[in-house]
Amino acid sequence: MKNIASPQLLVIQKVSSVITRERDVQALLESVLSILESDMGMIRGTFALLYGDTLKIEVSCGLAETEKKLGHYRIGEGITGHVAETGQSHVIPDLRSDSRFLNRTGARHYTEQVAFICVPLIHHENVIGTLSIDRPVLPDTDLDSDVAFLEIIANITADAAAACVEIHDERESLLEENRKLRSMLQKAPGKMIGNCREMQLVYEQLRQVAPSDATVLIRGASGTGKELLARAIVELSARKDKPFITLNCAALPENLVESELFGHEKGAFTGAVSRRIGRAEAADGGTLFLDEIGDLTMQTQVKLLRFLQERTFSRVGSNEELHSNVRFLAATSRNLEELMEKKLFREDLYYRLNIFPIMMPSLAQRKSDIILLAEYFIENLNVKYNKAIRKLSPGAIHLLMNYSWPGNVRELENCMERAVLTATDDCVHGHNLPPSLQAVRNSAATPGGLNLGDDSSTLEVLLANYEREILQDAIRKNDGNLSAAGRKLGLSPRMMNYRMNRLGLKKES
Fold this sequence. Notes:
- The protein has a 6-stranded antiparallel beta sheet with strand order 3-2-1-6-5-4, with helices on both faces.
- The protein is α/β, with parallel strands linked by helices and 509 residues long.
- Helix content is 46%, strand content 16%.
- Helix 2 (25-40) packs antiparallel against helix 5.
């Protein structure tokens, strides 16, 4: 330790003692600066740490909190930025006469000679920040010795500074993930499940139209959740506490649809033994939802068009004109444009309905939501059937992710119900899934046996599937011990929790 005086050796011993006993890295660095001030007369000490391409004062002694917040430097900017850029220590003998010192914090207003010493913090051969102090210059002050001394202090505190950077990065990652999760929750109204880009677009459109009374036409294949979307629109509307009346136009015989929709008078037809109000009348003040509207007969379409235009109708067997103040929602899985070409659907009705169309994506278009939906259904089915299913096996995930899902979300729900009923332990295995899914069992997998997805999967989906299976495999091999699984993968407990939350994995599974 050339040029290190006896008082400096005592300070190094004291700093080493603090490092040995102090577990809070922030408190440790604060203690080091306090020792430098009390034992060596070095004032306004700061540890500035590198986050991206910016140095920020993380710990200081003798700076007010407002002054500390001003201590930001880009790489190469000022003396602090220069030291971080070059990795070389630097000394300004007199702060009063050197313009390179930026005084960014505004704390220096010296009338006597004060030097500024800044040394790099180096961890694993990388500069991660700087240690700097103000040194009042006295007749016996040896600045070269002070520099050598501070370089030693920087070396023995570099690990603590690196831990500060890691904690900061993890905290920022968790905060960002929390922001994303809150955003996802805000974007998933009602009982809708899904975080993919396609569903986020649906949520955005839903929030735009829900507060109004505009007519909405929900389109999409059977089983995609069109009625669920209609209910979510109602929940965000001013009519949420009013009646929500539904009618599936494909579920009734042709001659009964008009009666169900508008009601009938006693004796209007055989079997009409009393007056009955229809769905349009029952929905007065609320919302009327017609599902599979493409199945309506041309005669009923004419009467529906009049109702949409005037909000007036007549019961079957009556000439009395009635009024109903309803918000109108419609859904169809059929191609209305093709029906219009075949003269099976009225153009004027189509344009009246198509004010605000929303397209529900098929499950094949939202593959990143498949596991999220499957786990949601398992939770509900556990309650229904008094089961305790906690997880999906890698084999089951492989089958779920590679199936084409012609029946969409409804088919997935039915598959999970069968799987929960046939499962004999706390896991859904591949053999618990229906035979229709088994055809993909032999599809291509990675050399390690982990399935990535099919050729149509996006990079985002492929990476998420791969990461999910790696985490689940590590957790399984460590008997559910998350800490042990994280160590095996080189992840800290915080990063393990962060990745599990991002992928929708629950600790108990």
